[in-house]
Amino acid sequence: MTLPQTPDNASRALAPTSEPRDIAIVGGGPVGLTLAARLLRTTAWRITLIDAATPARAARDPRAIALSHGSRQLLEQIGAWPVPMQTIEHIHISQRGRFGHVKLHHDDYDVPALGYVVRYGDLCQALERALARAAEAAPGRLERVFETRIDEVTQPKVTQPKVTQPKDQDGGIVRLDGTSHNDHDGLPVAFAARIAVQAEGGLFHQQMRRHAGVGQGDGGRRRDYGQTAIIGHVTASRAMPGWAWERFTEEGPLALLPHEDHGTPGYALVWCCAPDAATRRLALSEADFARELGEAFGTRLGTFTLHGKRHAFPLGLNAAPVTVDGRIVAVGNAAQTLHPVAGQGLNLGLRDAFALADSLRASCTPQALQAFAARHRVDRAVTIGVTDLLPRVFGVGGPLAAHARGAALAALSCVAPLKHAVARQMMYGVRR
Ligand SMILES: Cc1cc2nc3c(=O)[nH]c(=O)nc-3n(C[C@H](O)[C@H](O)[C@H](O)COP(=O)(O)OP(=O)(O)OC[C@H]3O[C@@H](n4cnc5c(N)ncnc54)[C@H](O)[C@@H]3O)c2cc1C
User: Fold this and answer.
1) Atom of ligand 1 nearest to the CA of 30
2) pLDDT band at 400 (very low <50, low <70, confident <90, very high)
3) What's the CA-to-centroid distance between 233 and ligand 1, angstroms?
4) How far is the CA of 426 from the centre of ligand 1 (A)?
5) Domains assigned to the chain
6) 203: CB partners within 8 A, 6+ apart
7) Atom of ligand 1 nearest to the CA of 333
């Protein structure tokens, strides 16, 4: 079967065929794109990549994302680096108004930078180019489908294969149903695949999960942190290039990441606070907002000026207990949506994509998906655990708790092996 290629990113509808696709990826965000590019480079499978939107829409997303050095290494392997970025050479972690802090420096770890701050849209464009190049080198193996929303992913009830049956010949398929808005006004689409990967981000996965079974049952980690993140771009009168700041305040963590927005060098702000405080701050004038930010952060960077719009995101942990069900697997934000503290969400998602692609090298089967889940379990659990623990530990009020946290930060700063372990986890996750 010859599938259409889209190196120019033209919109395509599903090619009519009675054959099941090998691997259908639902969601062409950074994780879906990374997975598709890696699969084209390292396996022989035919990939169908479906997105509800278009690459042009993703390219406009201005959100600032901190990528670790380890993520840069992964992106390099699929030809999606460089991306326009600001480097994080030093990280300063502290508590507002309390003793104890930790400083991390890139030269302690022999890396050019601890991390990089990129625009989501720029990253998606770099991944689109890398995917187009991979597709050119693997003719007939990539089918792109835009403006098509998948609403249901279903599979026949999984039965235990007979002992005598070869492992990759259980004949199973997954059915994907959705709606195409591509040249049509809501045309239903349906097709089959041997493996379906849910990479559709956090917004819709609960709805699809109800049908698919992935992530259902007890043991998932869900938490409403009672916090909202205010996102914006600010400049500082005494900026320190190359430094990123994570400051734990009584309301929640406040991060400033070196970032350039429309040619204005400054900081991407992620300010986590109580929802009513966030609502009030969003309504403040730019000058009053900047002044309150200065009061919350302290005077180290001088005074702040706000540029452009502020946005608010409610924060919660939503991690599926299992990411694999038969022939269906979830990766990226579809598998886990994390608190933004320490900026780990996409970094873990990229590792999901690589671990899955590597597990699918030899066969396109439920067993390969189980191998992925087993191999990736520790990295996923540790990353989710750390990002869940930090906002809760630093959210406990009272002088005693604050004192204990100060002591912990001071210990972390003094005990080099502990500090290096934390830095390595943030840069690379758990490597196996
Ligand atoms: C404000 C903010 C700041 C962040 N900062 C950081 C950071 O500093 N570091 C970090 O590592 N992470 C960060 N994150 C998290 C990061 O953005 C996510 O982890 C990442 O976007 C997940 O990528 P994804 O491809 O899994 O999902 P998404 O980026 O959500 O992409 C999902 C794709 O699926 C498509 N889609 C959705 N539903 C369907 C459907 N039903 N059918 C077909 N297609 C569908 C969408 O159009 C989209 O293209 C941040 C998130 C936010 C909101």
Assistant:
1) 25
2) low
3) 20
4) 19
5) 21-61+122-221+317-388 (3.50.50.60)
6) none
7) 26
